[in-house]
Design a protein that fits this description.
CATH superfamily of one domain: Type II secretion system (T2SS), domain F
Structural class: mainly alpha
Number of helices: 13
Distance between the termini: 57 Å
Strand content: under 5%
Helix content: over 70%
CATH architecture of one domain: Up-down Bundle
CATH topology of one domain: Receptor-associated Protein
CATH class of one domain: Mainly Alpha
Number of strands: 0
Order of helices and strands: HHHHHHHHHHHHH
Length: about 290
């Protein structure tokens, strides 16, 4: 594609975008198109049987434009998730990052980032073509920026998961020692976990609160702990939970088991710190300003 042809295409795209935006603005001013539908006009005055207080925001009827757009967006997210695949690593990272978002929602965020990158690349190509800096290489700019958007979205999730996992690993020995102290004082394991969830703070305490909520809804304590280990997939936490569950099933003294696991977790934290220092020993030699 020659620079002159690329400039003509960019001009045509810009003029077409302006024409489409103007047509949409004119259509929005037409009473038949711009007026609210009958369902939206009478919706606030009708209370559903399942919502007698009317606290649920009104949603357009199934045949409205809003519902159609939502269905189209949901279908696009499902197709995007199916095309990319690999939902298990994404689910693990979302759990490690402490996000309540599902895999489909995260794929939708990735799709938004890809569309934003594609649109930014298209706008940049049009601007460069109009100022006379067009070239054949500009054609690959929009897909490259779309791929960059997807990579940045993945990098943000990976960093959030890595930071939260580091905090959980740092808090794990303290939590285990606190549980061992409560057990030594005569409390049961579930009461000790509830006490830690009530007085503690941090990422590990938040996960313990989720275990308490699960147990209070009827799930066995051992199953709730196994579910926590399977969701986070942290080696130190999984090893500690396996030993605790085995002690529960065999009737072993839990306080001794928790103290032993706390010591192992502290050794793992020390080993990880030494490894990080070994990888960053050159950076540690650079003087930094203090204060």
């Amino acid at each position: 594609m020659t620079p002159g042809l690329l400039t003509e295409v960019a001009t045509a795209v810009l003029l077409g975008f302006g024409l489409g935006a103007g047509a949409c603005l004119l259509l929005s001013l037409v009473p038949r198109w711009g007026a609210l539908s009958l369902a939206r006009r009478i919706g606030p005055y009708i209370r559903d049987v399942g919502d007698p207080r009317g606290v649920t925001p009104w949603v357009a009827s199934a045949g409205g434009w809003s519902s159609t757009a939502q269905e189209a967006w949901a279908s696009a997210r499902r197709r995007w998730a199916t095309a990319l695949g690999g939902s298990e690593p994404i689910a693990r990272r979302l759990a490690q990052a402490g996000s309540s978002m599902e895999v489909t929602g995260y794929r939708g965020r990735q799709l938004v980032c890809a569309i934003a990158g594609l649109a930014s690349g298209a706008v940049l190509v049009v601007v460069l073509a109009l100022v006379g800096r067009a070239g054949p290489a500009l054609v690959v700019l929009p897909p490259v920026l779309a791929a960059v958007g997807i990579v940045l979205c993945d990098a943000h999730l990976a960093r959030a998961a890595r930071v939260r996992v580091g905090r959980i690993q740092e808090e794990l020995p303290t939590v285990l020692e606190f549980l061992a102290l409560c057990l030594t004082a005569g409390e049961g394991l579930l009461d000790s976990i509830r006490r830690v969830a009530a007085v503690g703070a941090g990422e590990m305490t938040a996960e313990i609160r989720s275990v308490v909520i699960t147990v209070e809804t009827g799930s066995p304590l051992a199953d709730s702990l196994r579910s926590l280990a399977a969701r986070l997939q942290l080696p130190a936490l999984s090893r500690s939970i396996d030993h605790v569950v085995a002690a529960i099933e065999r009737g072993a003294p839990l306080a001794v088991v928790l103290q032993s696991q706390a010591g192992d977790a502290r050794e793992d934290a020390t080993r990880t710190l030494i490894e990080q220092a070994g990888r960053k020993e050159i950076a540690m030699l650079v003087p930094r300003k203090i204060g």
